Amino acid sequence: MFSLSTTHDRNQLNIIFRDHFDIRQGEQFYAQLKEMVPQLQKGFRVLTDMSSLGRIDLEAKKFLKESMELLSRSGVSEVVRIIPDQSKDIGFNIMSLFHYPPGTRIHIYRSIQEANGHFSGKIPAADTCRREGEEIPEKAF
Length: 141
Prior knowledge:
globular, alpha/beta, five-stranded mixed beta sheet
């Protein structure tokens, strides 16, 4: 399952993945995303919460890749992911290298509280908020 919303005053797209995400939901997700992205201004950020995700079917990954490309074409500047369980990261960082433009900032946190700390400008301690190597520096592009 998933939900999509926007926070206009932050120029932010919010994505929540829960339970099981399959190909049918992937199709619905991409269709809804195409309708929502034009509401955002170039330079927007994406907050993706995977803290309640059970699993993503491999067949659904193609829609995630297409979504990243859509976000890239639309002007995404920052992606913040909440992934408390590293085993739930099904290659998002690798896909990001290929589907987001150079300079897109990618951050991974273990909880919404840590992500909110990032948004508020408070820099949490690296050993409590980011896993080593999971923030992709601009030089990687």
